Amino acid sequence: MKQLLIIFLVLFLGMNTRAQHVHSESDTVKTLEEVSVTAIAKRKIETELKMAVSVDEFLASTDGISFIKRGAYAWEPLLNSMSTERSTVTIDGMHVFGACTDKMDPITSYVESNNLATIDVTSGQAGSLHGATVAGSIDLKRKSTPFGAAGERIWGGAYQTGFEFNNNQFFNLGNLSYADDKFVADGSIAFRKAGNYYDGIDAKVNHSQYQKFNTSLGLAYKTGALSSVRVDAIFDQADDVGFPALPMDLWRSRAIITSAAYKQLFEDGWMRAWDTKLYFNAMEHYMDDTKRPENLVHMDMPGWSTTYGLVSQANLKRGDYSADIQLNVYNNLSIAEMTMYPQDRSKKTMFAYSWPWVTTRFAGLSVNNAWDLSEISTVNFGGSLGWNYNRSKYVEFNWIFHPGAPQEKNRVLPALHASYQLQIDRFDFSVGTGYGHRAPSVSEAYGYYIYNSFDRYDYIGNPDLENEASYEVNASAGFKNERMGIAAKANYFHIRNYIVGRILSLGSPMNYQSVGVKGYTSLDHAKLFNLSLNAHYDILTHLHWKGTATYARAMDNQDGNLPFIRPLSYQTSLHFMHNHFGILTSLHGDLAQENFSPEYGEDLTPAYRIWNVSADYTFTFKNFKTTLQVGAENLFNAYYSTYADWGNIPRMGRNVFSSLTFKF
Length: 664
Prior knowledge:
With 664 residues, the chain is mainly β. The protein has one domain (2-663): TonB-dependent receptor, beta-barrel domain (Maltoporin, Chain A, Beta Barrel). The chain is built from 4 helices and 33 strands. The chain has a 22-stranded antiparallel barrel. A hairpin with a 2-residue loop joins strand 31 (608-621) and strand 32 (624-633). The protein is globular.
């Protein structure tokens, strides 16, 4: 309790801080907008500390999202303290699925910060517009330049380069756009390369290097005064990516993400816009353990994921009522192989499908409605109804542990949500509720001997699992005036048939590093609670303070702790800017994770505090708006790991970074 009081005292006194530098009224940057209970809107893909960030670093600045880290690359986002199986992650509404059984390739790893415009995060069942979910949705929205006026030809672009000294990371990010009254083109290219990083005691963390190339192209043509067509493509490739928390690394991950869309606007009637998109994406992922001499048995574990689908949305409005109606349809095929070799790789010993050619088909219709009851109150309500179909081509792998399991499975996935928002003078309040189902993931239903290096068990899927069913309530309250603001948000989830892995009495481990076999099963229920508090205060015209505190708690039906639940976390920052110069300093940290779960491989994680600082200067160079930034993360070189660092791998020590940006 004493630690808790100290943290909140530091938070609200603002001894150290982090905030966004604002150079001029025309260049205002709002990294974190005011947040309703259902959505977190991001305006620029950069954090308050760093302009040049990865998508993961950007999302980590949001109080509703944390990450499981298995290395320095491709972090797994946790929305509302829940793993990616319980959330929906889309790119412009398109469903994309990773090709790795070990979650080395979350969807956020297939895009780059310079080909995204915004990231929309929606909590709980309010996120069911993009499909069945429990935790909510994360929609990665790509850049799309608007058409110009008649006779206009507009060119725009940006180039950003920089270097980070701890892991010798070098990056180049470029964008170019063109628009006239009939045609638009958007292009981007990005390259990052990093070596192994060093922790807070200056020890090298082996197998933490990575290399990534990403490029995108979007072309739009206006087919009429109120209609247009657009085609988009993203190509992403990552090579030689180390995962220090896992027994193997990534040789290559490659993705192609494509779409073709038609948009029609309407001047009269209820319907205001109709947007329909056909899409196709394919991922391939090749794990590699040949650089791990400690492995007595080597494995080849390639994976493939192919998805094609349709998303069609209509926007309606009449008077005080508005609605979004969305149709989601997709077909996905997930394949993952596992071949085990002795040291002499010419002697094959075992082959199996860890994802046995699993087809998933989904069709769902979602509706979100908003009704302004008065100038100060609004009701939001909606829901969705989805159909989920699975088929395992090689069902005999499942029959070993689940004799007679059906080769095909159909599920119905309903969802409902409602909320009420009230604004009185400078105060705003909201309350909401939701109910929804989600189907088991491919790994949970059909996975075969998927090794989990965190608890050192091999995991087996169960095709007969019931749908998870979530009941949620949420609330928020806030106050804001010209100089300050404070907001509190909370949500509670009661989830029936909560899917976890439990030790099986039959079967022996296949991986020599395993201590046993777990099968996915359903608990009667689980309970999750999330709380966040945000505040800001303009101390002076050029001096601003911000602070955030978050807390989460999660328990199973026996009141045992669930894994990867963040303890009390805090961040506080102070920012000074004048003319074209800005400087900020920030402090962030976690209290000790005392509510850990030994059953799932966790142990107590000590508390930590990290101090950061950065400075930037904006000037004009040959008609280019140019910004130079330098800074340091973990300024005092603290040695630490967090509750979400797989296998307690240490985080990066002191990291001096720099970046240079040109815009026109």
